[in-house]
Amino acid sequence: MRRALIFLGVLLLALLAQLLFYYRGTYSPPLIERIDYGAIGIQKAPVVEFSDVYTPAQGTVVVDLAHSNEVEVKELRVLVSRLSARGYKVEYLESKNGLEEALKYADAYVVIAPGDTYSKEHIDFLSRFVEKRGRLLLVHDPTRRDSINSLSAWFGVIFDSGYLYNQLENEGNYQYVFVNDFAQSEITKGLNRVTMYVASSITSTGTPLAYTDENTYSSTQPKQRFATIAQSGNVLALGDLSFLLEPYNAIYDNNKLVSNIADFLASGDRVFHLTDYPYYLGNDFSVVYSEEDLIDEALKIKNSIGLRSALRIDDPGNGNALILGLYNSSVAAKYLDNAGIAVNDKLEIKGVGKLQKNGSLVIALTQKDGRRVLLIAADENAGIESALTHLSKLKEITLTDFVAYATYKSTKTEGARPQAPEKEEEQFPPATQEQGETGKANYTLEDILVLLNKGVQSR
Amino acid sequence: MEIKIGEWLSKITGSYIVIVAFALILGYLFFLQYAEPKIGTIKITGTIDEDTTDNVISMLRYAKERDDIKAVVLRINSPGGSASLSEEIYMSVLSLKEKKPVVASIDQIGASGSYYSAIGANIIYAKPTSLVGSVGVVTTLPREVELQEDSLTSGPLKELGATRRDWAYQAMEVAESFINSVLLERGSKLKLTKEELSSAGLYIGVEAKKNGLVDEIGSTEDAISVAARLAGIRKYSIVDINDELGIVAPVSLFKVNASIFEESNTAPVHYFIYVERGE
User: Fold this and answer.
1) H-state helical runs in chain B
2) Residue B279 touches partner A, C-beta closer than 8 Å
3) pTM here?
4) Which of A42, A46, A211, A305 is the most exposed place for a label (fewest CB within 10 A)?
């Protein structure tokens, strides 16, 4: 018994010794806490009911799909339906070659996230379109890689790199920012708060219309007030596309903003130049031949246009019209006068000078009281007969935005060489409503001489 | 002969020296076998997916159940992975910590979901240039479902799970849960504001030490030493639990390409992961 106790005692001592050798204390676990998962929750921004209010109108909005635009037609359903409700037709441009033609009749042009860089030629087309008070909507979205600055920069708009974010107050994600600070304009009318879903800021020479709040930052720009909508005359720039799309259009005042944008596109005061032929005549106009001898030419021109029109001998006095007439006819005289062209022994064209009358043809567009009249006048029937050929190359014979002049082989003045203007006016007259914003003729004296020489060479 | 052996044994067992020696040897062997303290190491590497999680959970359980493993060091080298699986590991680490000290040692990267695992530990170690943080969520929004005549669902959200907008909100709630867990676990040691933390920045070890995302800069050896100290042991041996259970740790992915989302489930999934949003 004694031996057994000794054995156990030594064994315990051995264990204790090793315990002391290996251990210096015991582990005291900390209090294990868990977060309150029940308290996790983020309040959603409200979906706002919206009723669209608009003024019916007519026109065409062309949406660019020809520059590898990172947008699908089906995405634009909300905007398109708003435009349709306003009576506007929406067309999609799918070929770059069609841009010049589309801009002849479009009232507004929409560019969303173009993947391709805009060429100088296309920028020129759009610049002239905007000069003619066509409405241009430029939309960038940082989630869609695009080259929109290649175009927008020409209109004083730069979409900044990066994206905006707000970690304190947002619509479910730090990249979904609220825009609360609006300048007064038709675009921001009735807006209190809109939400943009990964938006870029805009630097513009125009007017910034909407700013983010002080807690909004840019991923690339230094801290500042960030504009997400800007307008420069007829050009409107948006730093986000998503708020136009379902379901994001329904949050806060986004629907109202979409409608305001539709109003912007559908309320332009588009001016047409002669080279926009024949679209300014609309789809229901008169072709007036004024003299029985000209009926064949009138018919040829009517058929070549491909728009709905009615052939008449008399000027109806209302509605758009294409009128054929000789210089000395009363109907031609009226519209020549409206176009600022006086006919004496010479043709005196306002802003250009005096040009030879014999063997000449004038094509002039007049726009007065909402009525557009395209006058084709010549000093004899042979001139009218050459009109169809000249209409197909109007760009080559235009003297001003509204007047074109050409020569033809006259039966009276065969072999006659057209003369250069006798006198160039030193000062162009001030712009008139009819002449558009540029006001003055696009041609210098040298240009006209070159054109006239070309005319001679082509005989 | 038998009588002689019996007498000899009687003499031996009757000797106090022999009794003492026998007791000492027995005590030593017993200690060696059952009571010598060990520090277990568990590798959390690669993307946190189902396999990784299953392996890590079984290793944590093993460490918890084995009495001689007195502390555990998590050797982390992972960009994170699935949100719920990361939470699973975090909760298992918490459970282990209730019984034994756990020290996290971040190697190259302890980002997002793997950092979530680390915050469950008593102490977090990192190397001076380890990458630490990325406290946030990556998610893909549900894709538009094409309607079909020959298949039906019982509800509008059956295929999507949630609308795109709701899913975005859910992602923020998932992030909120992660962020709040970091705030809770790091407590006053964390020098980042909630807004800064939710930026989901990735910091090198020395920065992470300054901003309180980690406790110490040091090697895995240092982490083991601290684990031993927390467990109250002076002398220990190290058990590689991966080796012990025959679990091969996956090769660590420094960054994961966004294609992971394409390869994943038909329904979108939230990820706690540091991910390269490539083409």
Assistant:
1) 2-14, 16-30, 50-65, 83-97, 113-119, 164-186, 194-198, 205-211, 220-231, 241-244, 259-263
2) no
3) 0.81
4) A46
